Model the fold of this input.
Amino acid sequence: MNGKGVCWTNRNLDEGKRKNILEERLASLCKKAYELSILCDVKVSLISFSHGETDIFTWPSLTETNEIVNNYLAYPEKQRQYKLVEHDAYLQSILNYREKEIRELENMVEDQEMKDLFNQLAEGRKKFDEIDVCDIKGLLNLFKDKRAKLDQMEMQLSGNVANEIDANDNNAGEQNDGHPN
Done:
């Protein structure tokens, strides 16, 4: 049964209703196959048949379906396997990317939790004896990162100050050209 309480294998429907349902679903499936072929720039074909019947439904047409199947079968077995491996590698790359995104999000959440914990400690809402070893390690990492940022800012500021002093010295020399005012 699906979520709507309709049994997919209901044999009690009369043949006319079953054919109508099949036609509707095949039309929907053809539309999705067409959209897939456009969206992914791939060849798509559908074949549908019922046991005991001689009618075969093909989409987009019997000749195009035969051509698609024959082109696929014309590939050597190794190339067909290689295409599957490429697809597997592609899916693995997507999985790796998503795992990387998840790790980055977890790190962001952990950083924010440590900032919140630090603020709670600074405001007196939490005491040091209430936190565990993992939180202490997280706070130490937060302090280390903040210290590295402060050191970097200090280097930039000292470089900017030195540049300003040099610029002031050069401007002072240009203003005093040796002639009295």
In short: The mean pLDDT is 84. The domain at 15-74 is CATH 3.40.1810.10 (SRF-like). The first helix runs from residue 15 to 40. The helical segments are 15-40, 62-74, 77-122, 133-175.
